[in-house]
Amino acid sequence: MELCTQSVAVDHKIITRRSANYHPTIWGDHFLASYAEVISGGNYEGEEKQHEEVKEEVRKILVMAPSKSLQNLELINTIQRLGVAYHFEREIEESLSYCYEEELISHGEDDGCCLHHIALCFRLLRQQGYYVSCDAFRKFTNDQGNYKETLVNNVRGMLSLYEAAQFRVHDEDILDKALNFTVTQLKLILPKLSNSSLAKQISNALKFPIKDGIVRVETRKYISFYEEDESHDQVLLKFAKLDFNILQRLHKKELCDITRWRKELEIVMKALPYARDRVVELYFLSLGVYFEPQYSIARKILTKVLCFASITDDTYDIYGTLDELTLLTDAIERWNIEASEQLPSYMKIIYRALLDVYNEIEKELANENNSFLVNYSISEMKKLLCTFLQEAKWYHGKNLPTMEQYMTNGTRSSTYHLVATTSWLGMGEVATKEAFDWIATEPLILVASGTIARLLNDLETHEVYTYSVF
């Protein structure tokens, strides 16, 4: 990507505009055609019936597993890693609640199996939202507070400790040491392992720990890892494959619907040749937020809103003049169709299409009597565009903000506030008005996430400009 400029005549004035020469979308109508191929053949009713039958078999396995056993913890972990835990939320919660109340993490002798057991229990409980002490890991350290070298012989235990350490919080030095210890040792161990399922899991975990992975991507990988493991459960594996295929068909249908919606916006995109067409990538982002079938409407809503966030980002970053951007920001703040009259023609198209999308969302949510919640997303969209305008003012005025000024503005311009708020639309009873009121107060977790998103985005942008300009 290389920035260039072009001069155009607007109202008898010569205006110099920038262009990033973004690569055009590679997807086209691919997902319209691919979904048509998917539904053209196959006995899907039979597959879904089989899916329900096998699901109940898995439920029985989960319910019958001894509550205090390592077997139960490994079963829960496998179900989660295979991407089917959303079918058994009540059973998993009951089991982990029992583990927490009985303080099972503190049980066991100081042996290799115990490391795997305690680390797995610790991670599963913290994933579930339980705060458990990390003191249980002190039994694996020596008098100097370092982890015992003998632990390296227990490869599975080391991997479990590595994943557990990802859930550390501030001032948990023992987990900081655990992370450094396991990363170093697992990298040394890896070349010595045969091309086994465990070796592949370690290699993948060092790049994508469970906490950081995109669920559906990691699910697909883990199904393959699990199938290669000679001790795998045939019923679990069968259910995971059935569930993955059924969900993938749903996701392809959603992409088909989103692609069709994007084609209906063709007149908008043709008027905005500078803007990136990122609908597929943004759907993938939405899929990373939630993949479960009950959130189908929410995924579509989030994707559509993010498409317009992307278009406006390119408008503020690349194309608009400062005067035009100021007019657009003022019009967005007013949020009514009459406010578009003062805008240049290309901005009128953006503005009216944005209002149309939110009107569609309101109608969609009217069925749930939740259309009023759309105002929370609209409010975040307004605030987002104000941050885009501030960045444009810095650029056009050739002003260099202080780091504090940049990060205060950048935390919101990362789009994270908009994503977090909009992602709750269409989630039904899960997302209450009280939840929206809470997130509107900008809690620390939201601000911190926005800061991380801003810095990661800037690092990526820096790499793109560094390696693409010759």
From TrEMBL:
GO terms for molecular function: magnesium ion binding; terpene synthase activity. Residues 26-206 form the Terpene synthase N-terminal domain. Gene3D superfamilies: Farnesyl Diphosphate Synthase, Terpene synthase, N-terminal domain. Pfam families: Terpene_synth, Terpene_synth_C. The keyword Disulfide bond does not apply. GO terms for biological process: diterpenoid biosynthetic process. Pathway: Secondary metabolite biosynthesis; terpenoid biosynthesis. Residues 269-463 form the Terpene synthase metal-binding domain. Keywords: Metal-binding. Transmembrane segments: none annotated. PANTHER family: OS04G0344100 PROTEIN-RELATED (PTHR31225), TERPENE SYNTHASE 17 (PTHR31225:SF209). This is Uncharacterized protein.
